[in-house]
Amino acid sequence: SSPSKVEDVGPMMEFSRPKLVPIHGIPIVSYFAENWDNVKVFQARPDDLLLATFPKAVFLFLSYPLILLNEGTDDRIPCEPTTTRRMIAYMCIPPPPTPGTEQLSQMDSPRVIKTHLPFQLVPKSFWEQDCKVRKQVIYMARNAKDNAVSYYHFGRMNKLDPEPGTWPQFLGKFIAGNVTFGSWFDHVKGWWDKKDSHRILYLFYEDLKEDLRREIHKLMAFLEKDLEEEVVDKIVHHTSFEVMKENPMANYTSMPSVFLDQKVSPFMRKGTVGDWKNYFTVAQSEMFDKVYREKMAGTKLTFRTQI
């Protein structure tokens, strides 16, 4: 769903960082907003699989197991740079060269669709016939502190997002929900609150880091896949952060630096749990914890900030 060659970039070679535009109260970058009319009327198919996360909650740890579960574990598959872009597309990605909604309309079923949209902005076609068809959704959440740090570094290198500013400035924006796709707090709670009324598997990044094999088995059960342990071994190997970081299909080194400047920060940076301790001051951590308690009051949703 992303351009793989500089030639694909076309007129967007010259551009400035986008501004945030509110869509039903949720801040969205301007070029996502320009395609919103197509997103809101997007037609889901009965066998679609939707992958949802807040930005930088590590999509790849959802994408890779699904590619390998659905397409096999041949060693060539995870090494081919365009594989994920053929098999999985972002719903909201804008040109160039083709909007994600258009790419998806041309994809054969079953489709795997990625989105950062909060639950309330997901096209209604995903839920309209929920009782009759087996639309499946996998949501991955990551603890807020690590998510904020990862999003900050991504914003520094990702020219398709607004300028993040300094770490203290970005942390203020993150807490206030003044970042692309809005409030982390509302996002994770919104999907959590709907997980029992829809076919949603809610996963936690920290659980994958703790025991990847266990979480692969959760995916297999949800998707009704029955695989030999030898195949699971290969999936676990290919989906480890260390292997993916060296994989051009995962590390986005094929993306032009006009979009993703990996000299500023690598697309796949650390993938650890607890890196927030290297960025939050004691005062910032205490302030964040206070806000967190207020915003997460009344929910049974809990996160681990270390494992």
What is the CATH C-level name?
Answer: Alpha Beta
Count of the domains: 1
The value of Rg in angstroms is: 19 Å
Structural classification:
alpha/beta
Keywords: Cytoplasm, Transferase
Domain Sulfotransferase: 47-299
Subcellular location: Cytoplasm
Enzyme class: transferase
Can you tell me about this structure?
This protein has 307 residues and is α/β, with parallel strands linked by helices. The chain has one domain: Rossmann fold. Helix content is 39%, strand content 10%. The protein has 14 helices and seven strands. The strands form two sheets. A five-stranded parallel sheet has the order 4-5-3-6-7, sandwiched between helices. A hairpin with a 2-residue loop joins strand 1 and strand 2 (26-29). Helix 10 (212-223) crosses helix 11 (229-238). The radius of gyration is 19 Å and the shape is globular. Its EC number is 2.8.2.-. One of its GO terms (molecular function) is sulfotransferase activity. Pfam families: Sulfotransfer_1.
